[in-house]
Amino acid sequence: MMKNLTKEPSGKSRFSRTLVTAALPYANGPIHLGHLAGAYLPADIYVRYLRLKGEDVIFICGSDEHGVAVTITAEKEGLTPQQIVDRYHVMNKESFEKFGMSFDNYSRTTLPVHHQTGQEFFLELYKQNVLIEKSEKQLYCEKDRMFLADRYVEGICPVCGNTEARGDQCERCGTWLEQTQLIDPKCKLCGTTPVVKETKHWYFPLGKFQIELEQYVDSKKWKENVRAYIDSWLKEGLEDRAITRDLHWGIPVPLQGYENKVIYVWFEAVLGYISSTKELSQKRGDQNLWKKYWQDEGTRYIAFIGKDNIVFHTLIFPAILMSWNKGGKSRYILPDAVPANEFLNFEGRKFSKSRGWGIDLKDFIDVFPPDTLRYALALNLPESRDSDFYWKDFQARVNNELADTLGNFVNRTLQFVQRYYDGKVPMAGTPGDLDRWALDQMKDAPAKVGALFDEFRFRDGVVEAMSLARAANKYFNDSEPWKTRKENPGLCSTSINICVQLTRSLAILLSPVIPNAAEEIWKMLKLDGTAAGAGWNTAESFGLEAGREIGELKILFNKIEDSTIEEQIKNTASGEEPAAKTDVPSVVPIKPIISIDDFRKIDLRVAKVVSCEKVPKSEKLLRIEVQIGGEIRQVVAGISKHYKPEELVGANVIVVANLAPAKLMGLESNGMLLAASSEDGTLSLLTTRSDIGSGSFVR
Questions:
Q1: Cα dist from 575 to 267, 569, 571, 688, whole Å
Q2: Among 136-150, 239-253, 407-421, 520-534, which is the least confidently predicted range?
Q3: Average pLDDT, integer, range 665-683
Q4: Residues 678 and 648 placed together within one structural domain of the fold
Q5: What would the DSSP string read from start to end of 436-482?
Q6: Measured between alpha carbons, how far is 493 from 559 in angstroms, rounded to an integer?
Q7: Considering only CA atoms, which of 141, 139, 240, 140 is closest in space to residue 182?
Q8: What is the C-alpha to C-alpha distance for residues 368 and 392, in angstroms, rounded to an integer?
Q9: Which of 19, 28, 210, 550 has a CB 3.0–4.6 Å from the CB of 73, allowing a cystine?
C-alpha cells in the first residue's frame, strides 16, 4: 500500500513545494458563478494563502478546447471550432483576471505543446502494450453520415430515466454510459434515430488498475463527498474505456490507419495540466521547471475540481500516470488531495445556459466589485453539499458584513487617527484586561484561520477571519475612545493603536479572499510592500510602529441599494419557470387544529449527516447516522429514490428528535427526517445552512 506522505510524525510537512491545478473549463461558453464556487475560487484562496505563508507553489489552469461540446456549439453558430475556442478562451481568461484569479499560467489545449504531450502519452502506453484495440458497435447517423460521439447523441438514461442523458454520461445520476446503452437515442444534429455500425477504437484498461487505485485511494484522507463518490465506482468495478473517437476536432491519433480519429478528450484534457506547466517553463526560460513540479517526490499535488470531475481526477488521471510510471522512464506524482466541491444553484434552481437561467462572471463584475462576489461565494461554497446563490443573500453579505462590519471598523479606526492624532499611529501603553483580550484574538486568528484553510474548509476559514473583524468592532465599542480621549488619553491611545494593528491583521487574513480590499487597507496604512506579501504569521503581532503616518482614507465597500438588487433579479429571471400543474387543488386540506401545547411536545433539531448507506434488499430505505449535538443516532428513511447516500453526507437536516423508536427492515430508527413532497411524488428534505450547529432547536 502506498504511503501518505502528507505529514511526518512530528506533524511537519514532508513536501517542499505544492502544485495546484483547477479544472480546465470548456471553451464553449462563458464562466458562470457555479464554476467559480465549484473549483476556481477555493483554489485561488488556497494558493494565495500558501504564498502568504512563503511556500513554493504554482497555480496551473487553462482552457479545455477539444471535444464534442465545442463542435456542437460551432455547428449551432455556423462557425469553426477554432473560432469558438478563440472567442471563449480570451473571454474567460479576461473574466478570471478581473475576478482576481492568480494563475501562474492559463494555457490552451489547442497549443502544440499540449498536442505533443497528449500524443506522447498515447504512444508510450501503446508501446507498453497497455492499450487494447477493439471493434465495437457505435451509433451512426445515416442522414449526417457520421458516427455520433459523446454529446452528438441524446436519449433516456437506463439507470435514472433522465430523458436528456448524453452518449457518454448522465449528468443527473453521474453514470458513465456507453452510447448504445441509451434508450430511444436521437442524433442531436438532425433528431433522427441512428443505426448501429461497427468501428475500431483503442481502449485504456482501467479495470487492470483497480487494486492499485484502491490502495492509492486508501492512502489518502480525502473529503467525505469525494470518497463516497470514488467508493461507488470501485464497488461497481472499473471497466475498459475508449480513448479514441471518430471526430476531426482534437488531437490526431498518431498511428497509421487512424488518421480520421482523435484522442478522446477525457484522456487528453487532464494532461493539459502538464502541458500548461511546460508552457510556464518556456515562458520562464527554465525547461526543467515543469519536471520539478510533476516528477519530484518533494511536490504535493492538489487538484481542485467540481463533483462532476471526481472520477477523472481520482481514478482515471492517476491510472494514466501509473501506467506511464511503469515504463521505467521519468515518474509522475499523483494527486495528494482532490478537494472537490458540490454544485452551486442559482436562486434555488440549477444553472442552465439553454434556459437563460443564471448569471455569467463577465456580466456580474460589470456591475459589482469582484471582491464582493468572492466574499459572498466564499461563505456559500458547496464544500460538502449543494448550495444556492440568492441575490438578497448577496446584498446582505455585502451590506451587513463587508460594509457594516469590516469596512466600518477600518473607517472608524483610521478616521479617529486622522482626526485626533494628526494622522499618525498613537503610542500604546501598558495593556489592560480588555486590551489583552483583543490582542489574544489577533494572536490566535492566523493559526485558527490557517488550520481551516489547510483542511480545505474555506467557508469556515472566512467565517473565522470575519470573527476577528466582529471582535475588533466590539473592542472599539467597549473601549469607548470617544470618552477616554478626554478622560484617560493614555488608555485611548493604547486602544486606538491596537485597533490599527487589528486593521493590518485583517488585511493579511482576508487577502486570500478579498485581495483588492486588502491592498486598499495596506495603502491606507502606508505600509511597505503588499498585504499579499506580508507573511501570514505576521498577522498575529504588531506591524505598525507608533508615529507612522497613515495615508488617504477610502470607503472599502459601498452598500448595495434595494433598487440595484431588484434590477438584477429582473434581469436574471428570464429562465423558463417549471410549468404550473393544473391538476393540483387550489386548497390543500389542512389537518385538525392543535394547541400550542401539542406543538411544544415535538422536539425538532438540526442534525448533521455523518454517514449514509442503502439498506440491503430494500429499494427505498437508507440507513443514516446523524449527529445531534454530541450524540450520534441511527435514522432509517425511505428516500433512496430521491437521494443518493453520497449526496446527504455533510448535510444539515431537520429531525424529530423525540419520536418513539421504530424498526424498519430489522433496523431501529431513532428519529424522523422532515421533508416536503409535491403532488407528483417529488421529495425534498428540509435543510439548514452549514453554520447552524447540529443540535440547534428548530422553533
A1: 34, 11, 10, 26
A2: 136-150
A3: 76
A4: yes
A5: HHHHHHHHHHHHHHHHHHHTT-HHHHHHHHHHHHHHHHHHHHHH-HH
A6: 30
A7: 139
A8: 14
A9: 28
Where in the sequence is the domain holding 32, given as residue range(s)? 17-122+265-346
Residue 491 and residue 614 in one domain:
no
Selection from 505, 522, 519, 495 nearest residue 417 by Cα = 495
What is the DSSP secondary structure assignment for residue 611, as one 8-state letter? Answer: E
pLDDT value of position 591: 56
Pair (253, 280) in one structural domain: no
Do residues 270 and 401 both lie within one domain?
no
Listed residues 204, 232, 263: the one ending a domain: 263
Among the listed residues 662, 657, 661, the one whose alpha carbon sits nearest the alpha carbon of residue 698: 657
Q: Could you tell me if 190 and 307 lie in one domain? A: no
Considering its fold, how many domains does the chain have in total?
4
Taking alpha carbons only, the member of 550, 554, 555, 508 closest to residue 531 is 508
pLDDT bracket for residue 356 (50, 70, 90): low
CA neighbor of 59 nearest in space, from 74, 49, 70:
49
- Residue 570 inside a domain? The answer is no
Q: Does 234 share its domain with 143?
A: yes
How sure is the predictor about 580, in pLDDT bands with cuts at 50, 70 and 90?
Answer: very low
Residue identified by cell 483554489 is 43
pTM: 0.78
More confident residue, 408 or 175: 408
Identify residue 448 by its one-letter amino acid code: K
- DSSP class of residue 578 equals P
Q: How many CB atoms lie within 10 A of CB 231?
A: 14
Residue appearing with cell numbers 499560467: 105
> Residue 284, Cα to own-chain centre: how many angstroms?
29
Q: Note the residue count of the chain.
A: 699
Residue whose entry in the numeric block shows the C-alpha cell 500604546: 428
Q: State the pLDDT at residue 534.
A: 96
For residue 262 the three cell numbers come to 482523435
What CATH number is associated with residue 146?
2.170.220.10
Residues 515 and 605 in one domain: no
Final residue in a domain of this structure, among 263, 297, 332: 263
Residue 414 lies in a domain: yes
**Cell numbers for 144:** 449526417
User: Is there a domain that residue 9 lies in?
Assistant: no
What letter represents residue 169's amino acid?
Q
Task: Verify that 252 and 298 share a domain, yes or no.
Answer: no
Return d(Cα 75, Cα 73) in angstroms, integer: 6
Question: Which tens digit of pLDDT belongs to each residue from 368-392?
Answer: 999 999 999 999 999 988 999 999 9
- Short-list 614, 692, 618, 615, CA closest to 653: 692
**pLDDT tens-place string over residues 80-92:** 999 999 999 999 9
Q: Which of 129 and 618 is assigned the larger pLDDT?
A: 129
Q: Is 622 exposed, middle or buried (0-12, 13-18, 19+ CB in 10 A)?
A: buried
Q: How is residue 264 written as a grid cell?
A: 478522446
d(C-alpha 57, C-alpha 697), whole Å: 44
Residue with cell 470501485: 234
Grid cell for residue 55? 511556500
* Interval 589-644: pLDDT, tens: 455 566 666 677 788 898 888 788 888 877 788 888 888 876 888 988 888 878 87
CB burial readout 140-164, b (16+ within 10 A) else e: bbeeeebbbbbbbbbbbbeeeebee
